[in-house]
Amino acid sequence: MRHFNLPSLALATATLAMASPAFAQDMCGFGDGQWIGGSEAASDMTTADAHQEQMALVLGGNEYVSLFTLSGPTNVRVEAQGRGAGDPLLDLYDATGSILLSDDDSGGGGAARAETQLDAGTYCVAVKSYDGAPLTAFVRVGRTEQEALTTGAESDVVIDDPDVAMASGSCAEARPLDGSLANGLTGTASVSENAFWSFSLAQDTPVSLTASNSDADPVMTLRDADGNHIDENDDFDGLDSRIEYSDTGLAAGDYCIEVRALDGDDLPIAVAVTEYDPVAAQMALYASGDVAPPLDGSVPFTDLGVLETRLRQDVATTGQMSWFALEMPEAGLLLAESVSVGNEGDPLMVAFDDLGRQVGRNDDYGDGYDSLIAARVNAGTYLVGVRQLDEVATGSVRMVFERYTAAR
């Protein structure tokens, strides 16, 4: 399953807010965002009397970013519901730009929804269109006891596509994962063979839960032993799924993992529960392009020097980002393009400034699978990354960087 985004050169993100909220700059790695309550003080969901909501119009494969704060540990619900046939994707970030969770359809009927406990701090909800089509959506943030925007997937899921495999069975019939938590609890089966896996934690433990096989495009749902919904993820690492509990960890108890396949119930899906490794998790974010790596050399990058006018670079790409640094000597338009050599492959490209703020991201430009980023930037150092959308794919890519300045 591929994501098709319109070129950022042709369209820009337009935003509408129900209460004309103020803009907040440079939060969570984004250049701008809007306080969900209209101001920072009114966006503290720990003390808010009711949920807060905005209306967003998203164009051009870009994102709408809502911000909120918490003055203490709080159980929150974040949701995005599209108008008409709109299908929003939702990502939750902390203030450093680290992604905490992603969701596509847990709200039911194409809506996105996630519930989680967060510590005090500032957070960003980024909403974009699943297929790159123009999207009008409502974004809501509230505590879990406050009124929900969506119905939830369990009460409103209608699957008409015969190629979408729904899990059969129940948590009562779950197969135990093999191994130990220290070395990883694992299991592999297709959805038609086994769709439910069980595991137990003797104590509160930071853990990572994964479901992997990008050809199958797995959706993973975490439930308690009675089958009650706890959390869900679709596309975290490319088309693979991941749920992480990194701070206080997942509470001691018995759990069930439900697995669905969006692209074939006969394909094997590897399910794993491992102890959370913060270093490995951060490196995975660099490899996927969700976060910009530091410029200290801990993550390899190629220094292309000053971009005078036009520069070409050939790259042998894999499913992990190859990073390039370049210098814009003055403010202007930075254009970067990734073209598959031989028209094979599907490159994904991202661009960040030297502070780690994302200035561009694109998967598919025009009628093919090539990528294009056009961003108006200031003088400074920029990181551009390229990888194959499919994490197990390889392919040769020709990158072109061009610099344009305003007429004088």
Automatic annotation (TrEMBL):
Keyword flag Electron transport: no
Pfam families: PPC
Record's keyword terms, sorted: Signal
Segments forming domain Peptidase C-terminal archaeal/bacterial: 194-261
Keyword Transmembrane helix belongs to the record: no
Signal peptide: 1-24
Protein name: Peptidase C-terminal archaeal/bacterial domain-containing protein
Taxonomic source organism: Yoonia ponticola
